[in-house]
Write a structure and sequence with these properties.
With 247 residues, the protein is α/β, with parallel strands linked by helices. It has a single domain (5-127, 139-232), classed as Bira Bifunctional Protein, Domain 2 (BirA Bifunctional Protein, domain 2, 2-Layer Sandwich), CATH 3.30.930.10. The chain contains eight helices and eleven strands. It has helices at residues 13-30, 59-64, 93-96, 99-117, 179-183, 197-201, 207-215, 228-232, and strands spanning 5-8, 34-38, 44-47, 68-71, 79-81, 84-92, 122-123, 147-149, 152-162, 165-173, 222-225. An eight-stranded mixed beta sheet has the order 7-8-9-10-6-2-1-11, with helices on both faces. A hairpin with a 2-residue loop joins strand 8 (147-149) and strand 9 (152-162). Helix 4 (99-117) packs across helix 7. It starts with a strand and ends in a 15-residue tail after the last helix. The model is unreliable at 235-242 (pLDDT under 50).
C-alpha cells in the first residue's frame, strides 16, 4: 500500500480532530491511507474517547492558563498538546490488518525514524494488566507496546476503528510539560518525568527534522497543506462535536 505523508499547519483542537475524522471517513470511502503529522495552534488538553472529564478537571483554571480542551475520537488518557508532535494514521481496516498488526506496523516506522534521529527508543514490554481508565495523564506510565526511552514513555498511541477504517493517534514528546495536566485535576498526583526528544538528543529537534527521519524513503511523498480540505477533498465541520466533554 502507498502511504502519502501529510504535514499540516497548526490548527485548533476542534479543527485537528475534525480533520482526522474526515480522513477516517475518506479512508473508508476511498481505500486510501494517510499518515498525518501536525501541531496545535494553542496549548490544548485532549481527553480520550471514554475518559471522564467532568468533575475531574477544572475548566476555569484551564482557561486562566490559556489552555483549550477537546475530546479525541481515539481512546487513552488526557495529555497536553504543546511541546510535542502529534501524528495520526488513517487507513482502510482491510488493508491495515488487525488492531495489533497495524499498531505494530506503525510502531516499526516510528522506532526506525526515531532511531535514525539518534533516539534509543524501545517498545514497552507487555503488562499483566492493561492500564485502567483514569484521570491520570497519558504520560504517567507506558502501556504495553508504547515507545519508551530508559523505561519512560516517549510516544503514547491509541487506535479507534469505525465503518471499516482505522484511526490511530499518537503524541511524541519534545519537552515535558505534561505535569500541567495533573495540576488541573484536583486529586491526581504529579507524574514522574516522561522521556522527551530534547533530553534524549541534548537539543530540541524541529518538526521538519522529525518528519524527515520518519519519512526516510524518498518515494514516500510528503504533502504540506495549509488548506487541506481543498487539497484532499474532505469536508470538515468543527461543531457541534460528536463527543461531549460533559462526561
Amino acid at each position: 500500500m502507498h502511504w502519502s505523508l501529510l504535514v499540516t499547519a497548526p490548527l485548533t483542537g476542534a479543527e485537528n480532530m475534525a480533520l482526522d475524522e474526515a480522513l477516517l471517513e475518506r479512508a473508508s470511502a476511498s481505500g486510501s491511507a494517510v499518515p498525518r503529522v501536525y501541531t496545535w495552534s494553542k496549548p490544548t488538553i485532549s481527553f480520550g474517547r471514554n475518559q471522564t472529564a467532568r468533575g475531574t478537571y477544572d475548566p476555569g483554571r484551564a482557561r486562566e492558563c490559556g489552555i483549550a480542551v477537546v475530546r479525541r475520537p481515539t481512546g487513552g488518557r488526557s495529555l497536553l498538546h504543546h511541546r510535542e508532535i502529534t501524528y495520526s494514521v488513517t487507513a482502510p481496516a482491510t488493508v491495515a490488518g488487525s488492531l495489533r498488526e497495524s499498531y505494530e506496523r506503525i510502531n516499526r516506522l516510528l522506532v526506525g525514524g526515531l532511531r535514525r534521529l539518534g533516539v534509543s527508543v524501545e517498545v514497552a514490554a507487555p503488562r499483566e494488566r492493561s492500564l485502567p481508565p483514569s484521570a491520570a495523564p497519558c504520560f504517567e506510565r507506558p502501556a504495553a507496546g508504547e515507545l519508551v526511552v530508559d523505561g519512560r514513555k516517549l510516544v503514547g498511541s491509541a487506535q479507534w476503528r469505525d465503518q471499516g477504517a482505522m484511526l490511530q493517534h499518537g503524541s511524541i514528546l519534545v519537552e515535558d510539560d505534561q505535569p500541567l495536566v495533573s495540576s488541573l485535576a484536583g486529586d491526581v498526583a504529579l507524574p514522574p518525568p516522561a522521556a522527551t526528544l530534547a533530553a534524549a538528543l541534548g537539543r530540541t529537534p524541529s518538526v521538519d527534522e522529525v518528519v524527515r527521519a520518519v519519512r526516510h524513503r524518498p518515494r514516500n511523498r510528503v504533502r504540506r497543506c495549509r488548506h487541506v480540505t481543498d487539497r484532499l477533498g474532505v469536508g470538515v465541520c468543527t461543531g457541534p462535536p460528536r463527543r461531549s466533554l460533559r462526561r
